[in-house]
Amino acid sequence: MQIRKAHFTNFRCLSDVEVSFDRVTTLIGPNGVGKSTVLHGLNWFFNGPSVEKISADDCTRGNTAEPISVTVEFSNMTKTDRDHIGLTLMDNQTELKLRRERRSDGQERMFFESSILPQFALIRRAGPAMEKRNAYKKLREENPSWNLPSANSAVEVENAMRAFELANPGKLAPAEIEVRMDIFGFDGSAPMSGVFDYVLVAADMRASDEVVDRKTSVIGRIVERAVDRTAADQELQAIAEAMHEQQDEVFAKHFTGQFEKLSTELTNAVQEYVDDRSVVVRRLQQPSIGAPKVQFEVDVADSELHTSVSRQGHGLQRTLLIAALQLLARHGSGGPSGTICLAIEEPELYQHPVQAKAFGRVLRSLAEDPDQRFEIMYATHSPHFISAANFSEVRRLTRRVRTGDDLGPTVEVRSTTLSKLKTALEGVVKESVIESQMGSVAMHRLPDALFASGVILVEGTTDRAVIEGVSERGGQKSVFVSGIVVAEVSSKGNLPLPRAILHELGIPVFTVFDGDHGVAHRMIKVGRSDQDIENAAAAECAMNRKLLTLLGAAAEDWPKSQVFETFAVLEDTLETFLEGAWPEWREQADMIAGSGLGDPRKNELLYLDASKYAAGEPPELLLDILERTRDMMKK
């Protein structure tokens, strides 16, 4: 059993957002778009206000007139799941939908979507058992052909109705049925406890606070479920009772006679003044000695040295916390068939890159092992938690400004699949290339671009260096400050696939490519054959036409240098363009190379410095590329 889909309404920034889930789901996107809100919304849905407190302040833009609602759809439900849940489910039902809502008065309710006979709805909504029985009896009398059995209790009424529904699926209609609020939980009494348990590792959860042996801490909850104290408690209580008996024996032996003598002496002394009173000296009632509770502590052992968790590095503390929560979920599970959903906010927190990669692979192995029954979800800013082989698991959240109303931005969730990319690139990139390169292109060419607010897609590293350098000149706004990533793909022919991936994920992408009009001249200079020159020119023309068509422009063999709304093309190459439009750039590059500070050949560091420090003004075309990209990000 796993989460297939969740729908959030009126919850913080998620006014009306639906998110689909896989066995492993990675939520990415800029800051403030709602990645963590998804995880916390699910935490409230599963674990309630005692764990995830919400209030009227959590309504989207203060809309307290509408309820906060989270709906979760489950899939892959087995017979064991159905039997354990106990809800009125069809025999072959594999999907389940539940909805939790919080109304403006603070009341929370949970609903279960089922197929029921409409005539039974009034009976189910009836209050006391007597009302249910009377309503059922009336319906039974009005419909004798249904052959409904008699029922003497509310339970028998429900069983009779459900048996009829199971036998007559064609008469049923979808409806919501209210269910008990504690349907989830770790205590084993809730219907879905052990069938599906949700554990959130929040970014601000402190490991040192959670390893203290108290009931509310993670380690305390683990100890309560994993450690059987019964036998020890009985033995300790026996010791306490024996000690109490021994205390009585010692008192009787040493104090009884002395207290009696002292009582007589005091009585005699008092009766010299008051003859109708006596004095008794006796032992005060001793407080009962209860069995001491065994306290636990968690230390970290490094060879022979034991140190407290608070003295460990942040990375190890974070790892310990996640491992402890994983263990807690396992011990809270009601049986071997239950699923544990481990949701981690910023799993890369305090992890160095190698450890983060290992962390991601271990968690993925848990999710992919059918015997473990784990579902994993992340809200992350790290590519280490994205799998190249499973890129379709990525969900990117973005904010879009809505025009024509004053309701503010809305959150969108985007993802991509092989089929979507094949459709987008039909006739441009071979399907076999898309199948073999989708994941690797995303991970190796776009690791930072996936997390950007906008992307400028270029052919090579020197193109990237020039654009980044121009953006960092005085009076300009750096691409890094703007949330823009300049991503290189190594050649013009590689542009379509990464562009399509970014576009499908909803990331604004501006494409820059060379027209390579001077390819023949360059090949003549190095002595290439006429046939080679002809073939190269034909290939460049074909690629230019293909890219222009893909980008929505008129196809032509040799386009002139020009900036369009979503792309720019250079007539030949960036170097030839700069030499003509910004001669000071070439002078600065030659000066840097002549000083021994850079390789005079294509060198991204040299190009970066030359673009940052060259005299004169950068060409308008380069500034326009930056401005157009920022404009795309505002839409």
UniProtKB/TrEMBL annotation:
One Pfam family it belongs to: OLD-like_TOPRIM
InterPro entries tied to this protein: AAA+_ATPase (IPR003593), AAA_GajA/Old/RecF-like (IPR041685), Bact_Antivir_Def_Nuclease (IPR051396), P-loop_NTPase (IPR027417), TOPRIM_OLD (IPR034139)
Domain called AAA+ ATPase: residue spans: 21-407
UniProt name for this protein: AAA family ATPase
Lineage: Bacteria, Bacillati, Actinomycetota, Actinomycetes, Propionibacteriales
